[in-house]
Amino acid sequence: MTQIDTSVPHSARIWNYWLGGKDNYPVDEAAGDAYTAVFPGIVTIARSSRAFLGRSIRYLVQEAGVRQFLDVGTGLPTVDNTHEVAQRLAPEARIVYVDNDPLVLAHARALLTSTPEGATAYEPVSLFEPEQIIEAAGKTLDLTRPTALILSGILGHVADYEQARDLVRRLMAQLPSGSHLSLNEGSRGTDPAYEQAQDAYNETGAVPYFLRPVEQIEAFFEGLELAEPGVVSVPLWHPEPGAPAEPIGQHGGLGRKS
């Protein structure tokens, strides 16, 4: 079994800490607190990204009739994971999680729960192997039927933008007509304080995460039909009634393959 190093902070555990999860260590809390001391809004960004994911899944189930989900770059389980949201509304929903991080793998059993009618599986494949991802997903999903590809805050870890676009294209190319892409990423152009904090974090030697201009996030949806209101700051995408809808440096959208 892979030894998990608890002496250095880990981005998935820091994110878990910001989301209020329990799968983190003092070193992650210290790194997370150091970041929030510079930019307190990171907790809002983390939780707004997770809330967007939940709203997009509800839209996919209720409005688009999707019953299959491929969640790539899953991260650590916290609250309202993809399978929980989907199966709450459609118990027959089938979900495949993909993440090759040994830390996430160690916690995969927590993800592998399902309703009796549906299915949940975990595949330890790299984001950089899109054909292998689809092949592995096909063990659980019927890839002749519409499937929702979920990329939530993962593409910022791909330093080369054109490579990131290519990965999205290759994944979507293997999914049938009627499939969807739910994507949200850290963005530039909305919150200079966030950009400054993230750029400084990237220089610490930690695993970097690159914020991208909104037009680059929009371009991930090239060739897809965007659901209204398009690619927007995530609190503005189908907000819950009465929820605060202030723009933040995290943009996302939902696109359909015709």
Describe this structure in words.
The protein is α/β, with parallel strands linked by helices. It has a single domain, classed as Rossmann fold (3-Layer(aba) Sandwich). It is 38% helix and 16% strand. Strands 1, 2, 3, 4, 5, 6, 7, 8 and 9 form a nine-stranded mixed sheet that branches. It is globular.
State the main characteristics.
258 residues, alpha/beta, Rossmann fold, nine-stranded mixed β-sheet, 10 helices, 38% helix
Please write out the topology.
Blueprint: H1 11-18, H2 26-38, H3 42-62, E1 68-72, H4 82-89, E2 94-98, H5 102-106, H6 108-111, E3 119-123, H7 130-137, E4 148-152, H8 161-173, E5 180-188, H9 192-202, E6 212-213, H10 214-219, E7 225-226, E8 232-233, E9 250-256
Parallel strand pairs: 1-2, 1-4, 2-3, 4-5, 5-6
Antiparallel strand pairs: 5-9, 7-9, 8-9
Outline of the structure:
InterPro entries: SAM-dependent_MTases_sf, SAM_dep_MeTrfase_SAV2177_type. The chain is α/β, with parallel strands linked by helices and 258 residues long.
